[in-house]
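Schema walk-through. Below, the input block comes first and the output block second. Nothing else is stored per chain. Lengths vary across the set, and this one has 272 residues.
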Amino acid sequence: MKRSVLSLIILIFLASITSCKDKSADKDTLPGFVKNSMSLVWSDEFEQKSDEPNPDFWDYNVGGSGWGNSEIQTYTMSRENSFVSNGTLKIVANRNDKGRWQSARLVTSFKKNFTYGYIEFRAKLPVEAGSWPALWMMPQRDTYGKWPRSGEIDVMEYATNTWGKMCYGTCHCYAGSGGNALAHGGLELSDASSWHTYAVNWTEDKLTWYIDGTETVSYENPHAEENGWHEWPYDKPFYIIMNVAMGGTLGGDVPKKLKKCQMEVDYVRVYQ
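--- output ---
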């Protein structure tokens, strides 16, 4: 009996070690220029004991009304839709008992914002039809006016119904937004539900996107002498957003049988 108990304890211990190794076993994808010339200035590794995302870092957008994209979810602050466990953040979209979709949209607005830097996420994405996960950034203040005048930086967007296995990075501004964005490029992923890193390097002169350390697209500041903000509003503080939307202009039709999908985030890191 004692041997059985001891064996069980050993198995549980080994399983926990294996699980930890699995979470961090992927190769280092941090570009050399970041390692050699930049320092980590902020991160959330989601290692806290509480299941609540760190309130010093994260706030929430809440509510429904489509969010300008005909989305069908309502964002909540509930731990049912966002929680931390085993060293990662989970953002869960699910149908409630009334058949309506709920999800979470976490933001660092007025808590952590940045001007320039290498911003990297490590995440597993939902790949279910109808889901629309995003890791992105918005201006802390609408210095140049309402969207898209003050800019938007999408580090990662993934929408199976619209793009299949393609994962994209995009920037929006007055000179080009929506389907006419001035920069929009990506990479096909064989399995977006496994761990990958998604990043953007943001300088005074250029935005460059990366997936697993591979450059996917870039956009250079044209340094226009007049109304430079039309093409480059990216000179002000931006905050970080993580969310899973459902349906809408990119998510598309949500299967009736689908009940739940999840994005898991290992970390968010900012280097400057």
